[in-house]
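Hey, I'm writing a tutorial for new members on how sequence and structure tokens pair up, and I'd like a real worked example in the thread rather than a made-up one. If someone can provide the structure for the chain below, I'll link this post from the tutorial.
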Amino acid sequence: MPGKLPAPLEHQIQAAYVEWTLLNTARFPALALGFAVPNAARRSYRLAARMKKEGLRSGVPDFVLPAARGKYTGLMIEFKRPGEKPTQSQKDYMGLAETEGWLCVVCTTTEAAVNLTRDYLLEPSWRRQSAADAAPDTPPSARR
């Protein structure tokens, strides 16, 4: 009897998820806004220093979808292998992002990330109403 299969690598989970996003942009156009954050990539000290000067931040989740839905500003997903936990810098970053209205979730399977994203994108889109679009009887202070 064969042994238990090894848990997929974080890369495999995320790559399958990104493939799903690419295959589903016709159904969910906001997926075209999503992008991966290359924080975990191995790089030379010189390149790492250069990227930090350009704004690379420790703890940023692996995938960012800047599309507002429901009460959230956007969605951030941190991918982990089953059984792994986020680092303290990841917890800190996600906590701060959540105070700014982002939905931040750790996913250990592609299926979980796909289901989360699909459910998220099916929520009504949140859009700021411009002053010109506000009802004429709306007081100016409520038009922001």
